[in-house]
Amino acid sequence: MKKYFAPILLLVVLFVLTACTEGTSEQPSKSNNNDSTTDSSSNNEESKKDSIVIGFEADAGTLIANTDVNYATDAQIRNIYDPLITRDSQTGKYIPFLAESWESIDELTWRLTLKEGVKFHNGADFNAESVKFSIDYILDENNGSFYRSRWANISEVVVLSPTEVEIRTSVPFPGLIERITGDLLILEPGYVAEVGNDEAAKKPVGTGPYKFVEWSRDNYLKLEAFEEYWNGAPSIKQVEFRYIPEFSSRLSAFLSGEIDLFKNIPVDSVQSVEADANSKIEEVSSSRINYLALNTHYEGPLQDEKVRLAINYAVDVDELISAILNGHATKMTGPLSKINSNYTETTDYSYDADKAIALLKEAGYAPEDITLTLDTPNGRYPMDAQVAQAIAAQLQRIGIKVNVQVNEWGTHLEKIRNREMKDMYILGWGPAFEPDSTIFDLFTQNAPYSSFYDEAIEQEIVAATKIFDNAERKEAYNHIQHLLVDTAAWVPLWQQGDLYAVRANLKFEPRVDEEIKVFEMSWE
């Protein structure tokens, strides 16, 4: 069977399906871009601004650090808490932050030297005890941290002096620096002990550039500048994260001047922003990947490897990038993006409807007898609900019926964590710069985010995480990447192209790790 991609047909299908999805076709009204006098006045007023309102698709799950593996939470609280190690905003390379240096003493011991003179918002000193407390918080099962499984190899944290801390592991753990960089934020031990976890989760105290002011659930989070910040006083003094779940509503709020910045602007709305004299678009190829999970924990046809292979051949990723994302994404073929260390080229399951149907028959299925459920968030990732509808249309071409279930983001995440998903779901993962934080955290039994599990592959993954030698480690991960592709563990989609709608006079450079650091912003 020839590939029967028909652009016009797809556009018609997408038009009909998008009409059924809360999405982006609505053209918001503009209140301040058609009058030159108003524009000039607005610019003069904004040039004096020392505050910013950032539109966000979802509320934070909690405000206590080291608990919620959720971008919406992490992006906001990193303005309150500091990490030990951060990244270069464009290359992703490690940069010392609260830790000035680190070294591997042996394969089971890491030692970090900490910065002196850093204060928490309540005046307490940052020191090695703070680091030990923050790691012990993750390891304590009673705290319910979703990061805990990633830190299971930690056996002990030892305070050597106020500025030196040693982290000892039960097995060789070469990926520890990545764990520290990606996961760990520093809590104030005295404050948490005094008020308890529940209160600290509502009124956080950190060493970061902004102090907590007020949090209204599902409405906003307000912060103010920490003038004694060790890295210098922030230029922007007042920050508000305002929660606006729907794309079209965020866009309306931006164009009317209610918010100054938001991420994940729909690609079909880019021209609306570019046409506004007070606005601009910023874009970066993010370290976040998007994928279609094929749930092997759910009883159904996707437990059969041949069916998963058929789905890979039936989903036309090139068409999705072109027709739905207008080219704002980089295609992936395996579990890692090219920005990831230890990336290797893997087989590309290019679109082949004949092969997909043949594989289904080998598995004992007639395509028309298969009905699958596809869950998607709406507004969490660029055009996510539209992508899901388009995938359903592509699978329908070979006879598979797909019911698309659109979820609010919090509900979507909870269904994944509680293993309540059915056949397939859309999800993104990142920021991801090295293989442990993607392959180990997605494809092992206790990691819920891919819903794929194979005992033999897990054994190879666990073995790879312990290899200190860089060449041996790369060889091991290369082999694992090919295994995951060969077994059709999921449908890899793309490395996400992050589009931001930005006020024209706001100095803002999008980061490859997706962090929203208000400290790095200023008004012109």
TrEMBL record:
Sequence ranges of Low complexity compositional bias: 29-44
Locations listed in the record: Cell membrane
UniProt keyword terms in alphabetical order: Signal, Transport
Residues covered by the Solute-binding protein family domain: 93-448
Chief localization: membrane
InterPro entries referenced in this protein's UniProt entry, alphabetically: Peptide/Ni-bd, SBP_5, SBP_5_CS, SBP_5_dom
Region of interest: Disordered: 24-49
Signal peptide: 1-21
Membrane topology: Lipid-anchor
Family, similarity comment: Belongs to the bacterial solute-binding protein 5 family.
Name this polypeptide is given: ABC transporter substrate-binding protein
Classification lineage: Bacteria, Bacillati, Bacillota, Bacilli, Bacillales
